[in-house]
Amino acid sequence: MLEEITQYLRSLFNTPDRASAEAYLKKVVAKYEPLSSKLVSWMESNIPGGFSFFAFLFEHSRRIRTTHVLEQVNQGNRRRIRVVNIFPNEQACLRLVRAILMETDEEWQTGKCDLSFKGSDFPKCT
How far apart are the C-alpha atoms of 96 and 54, rounded to whole Å? Predict the structure, then answer.
């Protein structure tokens, strides 16, 4: 049953738009309502919160809905922190992490960009 639900959830987030996702969610909820009311109530209250990525262009939805970019940033932070190994205090560690994140933000703002938002108010990638 768990594998089947996992497959339904994957299909749910691979739908082309929010309306399709909401309709598919209703079908899945109707199917599992007699079997597990706890699961159904969790799905109804939590899954629609994950549909916000549908507001962006379809081409960008995979990158937006996953945590891959965040994981890359965290991996870069860990790699640079490991070099220092010992910090004199917590503030020194926070200063390094802030500097790394500011550098990453600067790269994203000035050119190294994986997404382009044509026709939107987001910063343009060059």
Answer: 35
